[in-house]
Amino acid sequence: MQQKKDKSQASGQQKQKRNSEERKASQIPDKKVSRTSDIENSQTRKNKVEGKSADFKGKRSTGKYSPEKSHGSGKSPDLALSKKNNSQRFEYEDDHIFWCGKCNLPLIGEECGRCGSKGEVIRLSQPADVRFCSPYEREVLEGQLYSAFGCNPLGEKLILLNKIPGEDKTDEVLVDGFIFGILRFELSEMGYSFEPSLQGAKVLLKYAEGMKVELKKTNGHLNGKNVAAELVESFAGNIKAEDFVLVTAGSLTGYGISFIDGADFPGLKTPHETETRNEPESSFEAGKKVLRIRKVDSSEAFLHPETPNLGACVEANRKHLQVLGKNAINTIRGLVSRNEYRKLPVYVSFSGGKDSLVVLDLAQASLKQRELRAFFLNTGIEFPETVEFVRSFCREREISLEEASAGSAFRDQVTKLGPPAKDFRWCCKVCKLASAGDFDAGKEACSLNGKRAGNGVAYLTIDGKRKHESFSRARIAASETNPFVPAQLNIFPIRDWKALEVWLYIHWRGLPYNPLYDLGFERVGCWLCPSALAAEYARVKELHPEMHEKWNTFLLKWAKTRGLSEKFIEHGFWRWKELPPKMLRLAEELGISVLAKENIEDFEIEVVAGISPCKAGGFSIEAGVRGIREKEAADFMNVLGSTVYAEDLGMLLVKTGAGTVKYFSNGNLLASSETKEKAVCLFKEAAKQFIRLSRCTGCGICVKACPVGAISLNEKKPHISEACIRCGKCTESCVVTRYFDKLVPDLDKKLKV
User: Residues annotated as region Disordered (predicted)?
Assistant: First the structure.
């Protein structure tokens, strides 16, 4: 095993060295170049509304200002490839907003409520969850503009951010109806960077003191070209290698990426350099390359002279907000007033976030004659600001609040299960679903009404889930039941809203909101959630150093036991069980090993010798199991089939429809069936139940999922009685079996299938 590990690490180091040499040979800093394609990929949109698209390509301005009149029609080959590779991803139809060119305001409907003008369609990269730039994000953007270009031409303008796919926090910056650039958090540097768009670069050229490169006039094609020193007229001395630079070439303007420090430029120009203006195109690639052109053209771009405030934005959208609110209220009333639901309790799932805040306000407006309660699920790892906001808001609005707490559930289980990950989110079931299942609303409904609704629903919950939040939520319906809390019917009245509409509603209604949004958080869930952005996790360190330090100490200790470095934790690799390609590339770039050493857990299962034919016929699979006593298994394996436990023989026999499973006191496990395929399936199912037993958190979700009451917990260990009908619902609901493939990797390889 150690030889394989050393060989793998050596191979990785050689590959990294080759890549580094190749980058040096081409003099193209791959970190910046690879990420600049995000802008082009995110901008060229399919013409669905009025045949227009918010691309970075521009037309010549015909007026004093150009609030994104430059809608290109060409399709990017990168985008075409991206769409081909993501053909299964949901495509949003409402991936746009409007912009009033006269008032210089974003609109959520076509007509401006201030001047009556029709807004221009502004296409958004999907999932199109555009929002207002928060005060903290404005500070970050201003800092990046001053750091990179020595100026901030945006001043007090309304700025929108539209999240797009990226390494971490990545947002399009929309100003005056056009995309000014991209603000992204770099995991390699654990800090922000800003890349201008073509139009953003043209605006910056009017204000920036440095960061400019002037090329000799040429008839050759410049976009995407590497430019040699001989073709550069001037190169600002404050430029550093890998910086984005502002480029002029005669009537052409735009931006590019520097390969050198500006201070080194004078030494690169040859003594016999000519002043020829019309250089042949091939000479761009000749000599020492100092610059790559990203994009230049002859169009012009200006900032709009109007700088309206947030109040004007609310005024321009008031009519649209009234329609949105009315539709949401009708959705709520339409469902809660159905005959089967009229007498059921109604709750609002109030997390302290912006979406649940809006839903709570809408629910109050909808159900003036119906008792309404807010329900807050405190996971034990909430931000203190969130807990305080939820309690104070309900207290001031005289809203009845019921708070369920997961207590120390996370701390109790994290040492057993390890840190949660994006692809191993055990925390949600342990801290959320288990507590939600304990909620007493169903019992209360039954005691009040004597029975549930015809479909088993005992109470209604109004929830703020939205489809634009992520592609995984794109297909949510107006209402749905929760498979883990079957007595609950969830209603989603704002499922079609964008974040911009949510924020406009909040400001229109004058609602107080969670202060974390102004401090740099796009979401305000659990503060150590692996699905949160690394940018937000870094912000936790600044705002709550004591909380961050405690969690970071645990992560470092966990990493050390697996032979992983502090850099592994610092750059957020712990947030995946199985690293995606982007993180593997980052690990290679930073020289961080992601190969964890063998870690012997309390529970271990090791296949002895693949699939073997039996003398009596059929096939069997044998394995060694450590960490499970046969008595424990005897109390649990009814979930697979009828069990016979012979304590004097030290053996447990499980008879199933597919074959038999035998487990011996010495840890031997034997699964037998008539065919290879059935033997494999039976063995996997036995292994799944064994690991479920060993990793049981005692959350009790399986107890609630069982339709016949066959499951009980004894000192947080599950016991399955002979009443089990083997419907599989407890297995389906279990957080451990959900991540079986992550917990027992390479099982197929070990089985040689």
Answer: 1-81
Mean pLDDT of the 229-251 span: 94
pLDDT at residue 458 above 90? no
Which residue do the tokens 């991936």 mark?
Answer: 95
d(CA 45, CA 125): 7
Alpha helices in 160-240 (DSSP H): 198-205
> Can you spell out the DSSP letters for 84-115?
HHTTTS---S--EEEEETTTTEEESSSB-TTT
d(CA 158, CA 248): 28
Strands 372-378 and 400-405: parallel
> Directed axis angle between helix 2-26 and helix 581-590, to 10°?
80
CA–CA separation, 412 and 751 (whole Å): 34
**Whole-angstrom Cα distance, residue 487 to residue 465?**
19
Tokens of 445: 């409904």
Sign of the CA dihedral with 437 first, then 442, 447, and 451 last = negative
Question: 93 Cβ partners below 8 Å, 6+ apart?
Answer: 48
Instruction: Identify the bridge partners of residue 171 per DSSP, sorted by sequence position.
Output: 163, 183
Angle between helices 354-366 and 499-509 (to 10 degrees): 60
Please choose, from the candidates 131, 132, 54, 124, the residue with its C-alpha nearest in 3D space to the C-alpha of residue 94: 124
Q: List phi, psi (to 5°) of 56.
A: -85, -5
- Total number of residues shown for the chain: 753
Give me the half-sphere count of Cα atoms (radius 13 Å) on the Cβ side of residue 63: 11
Residues 6 or more apart in contact with residue 132 via CB below 8 angstroms: 158, 159, 160, 161, 310, 500, 503
Q: What is the residue-wise DSSP string for 499-519?
A: HHHHHHHHHHHT----GGGGG
| Degrees, nearest 5: CA angle 330-334-336 | 120
End-to-end CA distance of the chain: 21
pLDDT tens for 596-619 read 875 545 677 878 766 878 767 888
Q: Which residues on neighbouring strands pair with residue 489, listed in sequence order?
A: 460, 481
Phi, psi of 651 (to 5 degrees): -140, 140
Instruction: Quote the pTM value.
Output: 0.76
Cis check: omega of the bond before 165, within 30 degrees of 0? no
Q: Which two tokens stand for residue 456?
A: 């088993």
From the list 232, 251, 205, 369, the residue with the least C-alpha distance to 292 is 232
Find, among 212, 213, 215, 214, the residue nearest to 277 by Cα. 215
Q: Tell me, what DSSP letter sits at residue 284?
A: G
**Kind and range of the H or E element at 192?**
strand 191-196
Q: Let me know if 454 is exposed, middle or buried by CB neighbors in 10 A (0-12, 13-18, 19+).
A: exposed
Tell whether the torsion through CA atoms of 702, 704, 706 and 711 is positive or negative. positive
Coil, helix or strand at residue 576: coil
> Cα–Cα distance between 362 and 377 in angstroms, integer?
20
CA distance 9 to 595: 8
- In one-letter notation, the amino acid at residue 253 is T
The amino acid sitting at 476 is I
Amino acid identity for residue 247 in this structure: V
Digit-coded pLDDT (tens) for 257-280: 999 999 999 888 654 444 444 444
